[in-house]
User: Fold these one by one.
Assistant:
Number 1:
Amino acid sequence: MAKKEQWTSKIGFILAAAGSAIGIGAIWKFPYMAGTNGGGVFFFLFIVFTILIGAPILLAEFVIGRRGQADAVTSYKKLAPRSAWHWIGYLGTLVAFIILSFYSVVGGWILSYLFRSLTGALTGKTQAGYSALFEDIISNPLEVIGAQFLFMVLTIMVVQGGVQKGIERASRFMMPALFIIFIVLVIRSLSLEGAMEGVRFLLMPDWDYLNGKTALVALGQAFFALSVGISIMVTYASYLSKTDSMPYSALSVSGLNIFISLLAGLVIFPAVFALGFQPDAGPGLVFVVLPAVFNEMAFGGFFLSIFLILLLFATLTSAFSILEICVAVLAKNNSQKRLSFSWLAGMLAFLVGIPSALSFGVLDHIRILDKSIFDFADFITSNFGMPIGALLISLFVSYRLKKQDVWSEIQSGSTMSVGLFNTWIFILRFIVPIAILLVFIS
């Protein structure tokens, strides 16, 4: 039997898991969600929900993965034999595959922008010019498919190397580089005249925005930013040593996710306010508004290139984890099959993602529930697949697994108190399901 791969160190696992969680959810989605939902109030609620809701589910996935010591499907089969619980793993794998199919499209957009940035083609335009450029890029069939293909090839080349030589090695480089680049950009953004208005917008809550809609949106952002609900972390935790502390890892990943979201806000909002733009520009904040903002800075082209490199790093680390869950289910810990299944799964995701890539151009006329193909794929995974998966995971750990077995797994490598453990179980049994149902209904 092939020897089970493991992370070489605790920090390697944390960086890889954090890379999976952060992605474009923290860097691309968080700023525009905060910008359209009151800034400081949204950020405050996001932090509360990440700690109280996201982290407990994350720890639950860690328990399943390390105790099962297998891929997302086999782990459930081992922990709950002769039952239907393993369908949680199949659901997570399917949802992950669909996410990768359109996620790679966004990765392609980033590559297109990065190429233009490095060649100087992103400088000297008006804000209307940047909006037109974005429309031109996403509607060009050859460019979007070619860039999507290149992004998927980069992802496959890392994942085919396995956990230690591929994902962990790449994450050990990409995540520290991401933090360093972010710090540089934060310093540059905060040095602008009038930047403090953006800082106040992000960090000083305006309680007039405190309402049910803002709370539900913040809960959804916290939930989806950690990539919980599709058993990605079940797969990652299956490579975790029994001597590593899972509660510490869950808190570290959650904390890093909050920290990166904070840095993203401190890069974007001070610059947006200092240069007279609006924070509620929506999804186009990164691709339309941000290039215009950097264009008005000294050395703006240089800093824009740095930001796009950072965004590419974050997107790739998430793509690694999404592809890994598919490869793990197919390869079943057989390292000889990893290479072929990495290319098989990756290329299938690329092919399935082509309609999403073309949904802003030649397939723009196709609508599903009044949504483009890209938006529909995002909708069914974010609003159905992930919430249902997370709900089932919380119920599986808190009701189906024996409490003593869960306690034993938690205690391996950590010293969580009985009181804290019982509080976590209570949150999984009651608080998390109610919160997920509220997000699902909304």
Note: The longest helix spans residues 87-118.
Number 2:
Amino acid sequence: MTPLPTDAGATPAYWDAACHYLTQRDRVMAKLIPQFGQARLQTRGDAFSTLARSIVGQQISVKAAQAVWDRFVRHLGGCAQDLLKPDTVLAQDVPMLRACGLSVRKAEYLLDLARHFQDRRVHLDQWQAMDDESIIDELVAIRGIGRWTAEMFLIFHLMRPNVLPLDDVGLLKGISLCYFSGEPVSRAEARELGECWAPYRSVATWYLWRCLDPLPVEY
């Protein structure tokens, strides 16, 4: 089981081994991985802040999401690099959160997220011993967090090595471009291809995202 990262900027200990494994098994990965040198997956923030940021960024551009996030954190009395606390969010109500540029729905989602953390309905201290699907089940019980968001959390925060987010448009587009000459690819085809990447499907996914956008994604 992959250890839980404790510091922002942490990188997975398995990354080099995963790259070697993938380049030995997959000719596309053998060409793709060296293009990005020493770039690595990195985590930032704590669990609560990471999930809150994912809610704020839903269905809007990266630039717009950052602007709303900055206003949201300033409204709570911090700066964009600060870690949020559930009780700080719960001190707000929906109209107060709306003033930061959040929709009513996103404001309600953030309050529900904060209540789950404050009431210890998420078991951070047990995640290291839990499998991916069990953590996903726990996270999707929070309003505003679906399977895709939970999978992004597994990859970017918990740094689980073997996640294949089949609902991710970028992953399917990357597979289409790199393996199917730009032809549309189905979830079933992506799943079958991903079998050869196990147990490092998260790493293969990360590099396919890079072929679409050289700038690393962070959550």
Note: Confidence is low (pLDDT under 50) at residues 1-6.
Number 3:
Amino acid sequence: MSQSLSDLTIATYNWIVQRPDGVGFATTSQDQRQQVGSMSLEADMDLKPSNLILRDRMYGSRLELGGGLSSPALRLGDLTSGRWNGSTVRLLASDWHRDGDAIPICNGELDKVVVEGGEVSMSIDLLPPAIRRPPCIQTSPECRAVLGDRHCRIDMRTRRTRLCVIKANANELTVDVSDIDGYAMGRLRWISGANCGVEQSILSTEGNKLLLHDVPEFPIKAGDRAIAHQGCDGRRTTCAERFGNILNFRGEPDLPGSEILMRFPGA
């Protein structure tokens, strides 16, 4: 029995995913490659929307995706290692048998990934980044600026170093840099090895040893290389003594907080 075009599904979902470092891919739910405008979408992703929640209030709007991972562009190890954390996700719909631009459905940021068996589910936060930020500046004892941003104004080009792992035990590393004491609370970005592209937080340092905040998804081997960025604990003394940047300090350590209400007279 023959079927007409009107009996078939003609709507396709199109995904455009981009990591913070610029790496990304575009894919479609159609069974063959599709051209949408100037963009070519590969037909190698088996993810479909399972739940779309749109709310009037500020929080709660999100998109749930479910399916299997069949694309070489989005591997399970990359998801669980954090390579795609913070990625922007765009969902569009198009008519596969007609030329024309795709209709945007929603934009969001990859929030959470859950893997059970061979199935994967992803949660996309649809709250715009501008709404996530506090509407006004709040006071805090520690500095609110991020080291190297436009508020801090420290030039980070001279405060990073390349290093090579000599020995590794889970998240404890011995590197070929003799003194990395200024890199506690900083960031480490892998540029070789199985964790290449993954960024981790540095918990503490001592001499040529450093402790990462968590154990990476893939084992670290001797010879793996990374770029370490200096860190800051946000204290006024650190800002003044280590960075000489007290004029740009964005904290109020001398401002009494709510704990002053708990004090007794004479305390």
Note: Confidence is low (pLDDT under 50) at residues 1-5.
Number 4:
Amino acid sequence: MGHTDPIGGAMPLSVGQEGLWLLHKLAPDSATYNLAGGVRMEPGPDPEVLARAARALTGRHPMLRSVYVEVDGNPRRLVKNPGEIGELVVRDVPDADDAELRRLVTAEAATPFRLSEEGPFRVVLWRRRADAVLLALTHHIATDAISQWLLWRDLLGAYEAFAEGKEPDWAPVVVEYDHFVESERALIDSSRGRRQAEFWQEQCAGSAPAELLTDKPRPAVASFTGASLLRRLPDELSERLKRAAAEQEISQFALALGSLQALLNRWTGQTDFLIACPASVRRSAAKDVVGYYVNPVLVRAVFDRNAPLGEVTAAANDRLRQATARATYPFPLVAQAAPGAGPLFRISMTMVTTDRFGSEMAGAAAGVPLDVAGLTTTYLEIPHLEGQCDITFEVTRDVQGLTLALRYDTALFERDTMDRLLDQLIRFMAAAADTPERPVSRIPLTDAAEKRSLLALGSNAGDGS
């Protein structure tokens, strides 16, 4: 596969991008695959300097100024010139209160992209009298979690440089995304690719997706609507989890994943099931490239309820290591080869570590304000990626500890159910750290306060109250 002219040439997509393009065509009015992040800036930034920074950002990252079309029935990416798309939009809302501003930002984050006309990137600034909120919104076809932080690092870095009369001190981008597309195609056609395909066939054979009983009937067509719950773990618990993972010689993510597997076993009774774990397939040469470098890998859980929780997390660590070693094989091809018409997963879990983005951005992810050219800049969590599958768990590890996010399909589940699920996951993670020898079947699903409440309800029912 030859190298394609990056300006004006029609470039092929990766297999993952092709899958997202198909989903976009099936549901063009859906914002399910929007990725959003925002910052509050006090006082507000200079809009002309910010517009220049945004244009420099799209100039540096061609993926942000690409549009998606079909050529002879095949999806392709066309790169536009800087300034054609992805320009800063400024909206003055001088008297908006915090609630109104949050509503405006959330509504923008939920606005679908027109990938063939406007591309996959929007940057919007809402200005009040004393501060402003800046939203950077992308479609997943162009970015992944790492790309989102690269985007913010480069955008804020460019603003600071331009505000000080300098040019951005960016490390050069040494590869382009189409190199990844070429290497993926080469893998598929190789003996190594065939061995990976065989591994995934064996991984799926005889198993089934982990699946919770829904609160509402499953609609015939996916709704692609969702909501998010966030839990910041106490610092003391985050430290216990970190220490326990090191002592058990497993990763912190494997500890969380094994805890989730054990909890799902308790909720569903399933003893052989699959969970998807989106894995980065980004190589070091592409460390500064904005692009879609993520591939879901399936992690199988096979255990009985009498197994100690530590055994479950150790098995999760081993299976996760095997899966990520074969993460480069495109998941859509795994799904195509699988027997049956249903999905291979309905629940996923991923982990994002922010330390790779440098100390300043890692601090920002933890809520530590940045000084950007004299502006106090605080990162805002914006709901996004909701409704992709039944339930998605996201573990973020920053310099201060762990945050858990649960994103769920609101057409299937009530918030109370998801609140309970997330609380119980944290309880199982604490058990994995403190009592890994305890059998999965003996881990309590309720705490003392909840037990008292349930007993009181039972007592009232018995009294005829």
Note: The radius of gyration is 23 Å.
